[in-house]
Amino acid sequence: MLDPETIALPNAMQAQQEPLLLLGATATGKTAVALELALHLPIEIISIDSALVYRGMDIGTAKPSPQERAQVPHHLIDIIDPAQSYSTAQFAKDCALLVGQIKARNKTPVIVGGTMLYARALMRGLDALPEADPQIRARLDAQAAQLGWPAMHATLAKIDPVTADRLPPTDSQRIQRALEVYELTGKPLSSLFGNPAIAPLPCQSFSLEPADRKLLHQRISQRFDAMLANGFIDEVRALKARTDLHAELPAIRCVGYRQVWEHLEGITDLAQCRERGIVATRQLAKRQLTWLRSMPIDNRLVAPRNQQDIKNNVLQILSLIKDVQ
Q1: Looking at residues 9-32, what average pLDDT do you find?
Q2: Contact at 8 Å (CB) between 224 and 281?
């Protein structure tokens, strides 16, 4: 770990061309660090978060506030309706386009978030896979409604044991996709990797990783309680009132939203909803940290605990940026 007191700042108010990728688990201070970085560099932020793309899902996603978004341009937030889906491939294409546009404005693209599947697509490229087929997906959904997703997972294990081994039996979205790809191509999903249709995006990567897991859990609990106090249940109630939304959509499966949806269905009381939401968020953070440990991150930083840590993180990032002009 670098000593912030010994860091010599570069000429900070000049942009550098290489995009910066700032990753971290939920509640590790990524947005705060990015906003502090904007005080030193002319940047624009590209969200790398599969939940922030949805309009009308603000409280439960901890979406940057209107004031924060006015302070620094943000992209890939509020771009689709919750009834729609947004793929990793679409993210990779959109992100590459935005990077070019931001660089053309002589600003530094800073890609910030915690959707590690998106991050892997940026760092490794994305393999050529068939487009989604609504009819096949509808049929798979109908089968799952009868048999359950664990049974669908067992079917996947017979045709693609490599993919099945890395997916839990409850991961309906990815199990469905793997079965769909097999039906469309006749080949296991795992056999189609290694031939990228979308090239890797050159960038310098940073991660914010907590030194104290207990503190992270405490922050997750505090943030979920704040969401409930700020109207999270009413936000989900408004979504549930729409006739075109249901519990199996990717938007409604987002952590927190699923648990509040179940509460509004009468499956849980408020205390159970809170507990399940906090537990699900902790599990998400654990998965994100597992991903981070397996990824070739250029610079691993300790996640901030307070405002001074945020400033120190930014000083470290500035000292590590390559080719600052």
Answers
A1: 80
A2: yes
Q: Which is nearest to 274 in space by CA: 227, 242, 208, 234?
A: 227
Cα 117–chain centre separation: 8
Torsion sign (Cα): 294, 250, 77, 259? negative
Instruction: Assign 147 a pLDDT band (cuts: 50, 70, 90).
Output: very high
Quote the pLDDT of residue 185.
86
Mean pLDDT of all residues belonging to the chain: 91
pTM of whole model > 0.85?
no
pLDDT at 10: 47
150-186 per-residue burial string, b: 16 or more CB within 10 A, e: under 16: eebbebbbebbeebbeebebeebebbbbbbbbbeeee
Cα–Cα distance, 180 to 87 (Å, whole number): 14
Is the CB of residue 311 less than 8 Å from the CB of residue 250?
no
Give the separation between CA 73 and CA 259, rounded to whole angstroms: 31
**Residue 92, pLDDT above cutoff 80:** yes
Q: Give the span between the Cα atoms of 151 and 147, in whole angstroms.
A: 6
The C-alpha atoms of residue 87 and residue 93 are separated, in whole angstroms, by: 10
d(CA 40, CA 13): 6
- Residue 209 — pLDDT band, cuts 50, 70, 90? very high
**Tokens 């249940």 -> residue:** 233
Long-range contacts of residues 264-269, Cβ cutoff 8 Å, at least 24 apart: 264/233, 264/236, 264/237, 264/240
C-alpha separations of 211 from 115, 131, 142, 201, 303 in Å: 20, 41, 44, 29, 7
* pLDDT reported for residue 13: 54
